[in-house]
Amino acid sequence: MILNYCLTQKTMSKNTKQEILLKVPAVLKGFTTLMDGGIKLVIITRELIPEDATLLLKLVKKSGWFVFKQTNIAESDVANLPTELKEFKGDKTPSQRLRAVIYRLWEQTDKSEEFNDFYNRHLGAIIEQYKSKLD
Hints:
With 135 residues, this protein is of the alpha+beta class. It contains four helices and four strands. The chain has helices spanning 50-59, 75-78, 94-107, 115-131; strands at 3-13, 16-33, 39-45, 65-69.
């Protein structure tokens, strides 16, 4: 079964809003869950026309909205997408997020050391990595 999907990215360029909209028939082949709670999708398209392939290349490593529908996607389906894409849900600060990730890493170890020691050691390694890049 061929399904339609749409990937959009809204960007600001010289005070003008530019929207790139890629709409091609595709099959959602599968997915895997990621450690951070995200999902990696596997999508197969038919052979793309050069214009769609160019648009796809422009969207690589960009954040945007993914719309998937088993029937044709109409303008009304994408008309009400939010204008801003929030990177993360919730109110965690970047340092809280880093601590939570290091905690998850600690959970996957043998826990032979206390979390605070593990955290301080890993945070120290991160700091040293950045210090080594300074002049």
